[in-house]
Amino acid sequence: MRDTLSRAKLESLGGGRFRVSGVLDATTVGDVLKQSKDRFSNLDRLAIDLAGVSDSDSSGLALLLEWLRLAKESKREISFVNVPGQISALARISEVEDLLSASTAVATS
């Protein structure tokens, strides 16, 4: 049985702001991605706070990259704050750190 504290949670803070908490790994990111598709669908701007992420692996980075892809595809702005050190280190090694480090404004042209 999976520990309740390890489950990842996507919480809406209103106004396109969201908080992610728990563990982002292969067992949790699929559910978070599924939740996000519904919750993000009618928003033009997203700000995702990752301060509550207690642990992550490459699945967490993959989730953020997927959110970036989906935002670009739907001409939506997205930004990440408080990116955990584990995800930042993986992004640096993978040479995608710049994608996560600043707000990403998606051109509407």
Describe what this molecule looks like in 3D.
Helices cover 39% and strands 28% of the residues. It is globular, with a radius of gyration of 13 Å. It is built from four helices and four strands, in the order E-E-H-E-H-E-H-H. The model is unreliable at 1-5 and 105-109 (pLDDT under 50). With 109 residues, it is α/β, with parallel strands linked by helices.
The count of strands amounts to 4
- Given as residue ranges, the uncertain stretches (5+ residues, pLDDT < 50) are 1-5, 105-109
- Summed over residues and divided by their number, the pLDDT gives a mean of 87
Task: Classify the helix fraction into a percent range.
Answer: 25-40%
CATH superfamily: STAS domain
Ends apart, CA distance between termini: 48 Å
What is the total number of structural domains?
1
Number of helices: 4
Strand line-up across the major sheet: 1-2-3-4
From the 3D structure, determine the CATH topology.
Transcription Regulator spoIIAA
Q: Kindly provide the name of the CATH class.
A: Alpha Beta
Name the assembly state: single chain
CATH architecture: 2-Layer Sandwich
Summarize the entry for a quick read.
With 109 residues, the chain is an alpha/beta fold.
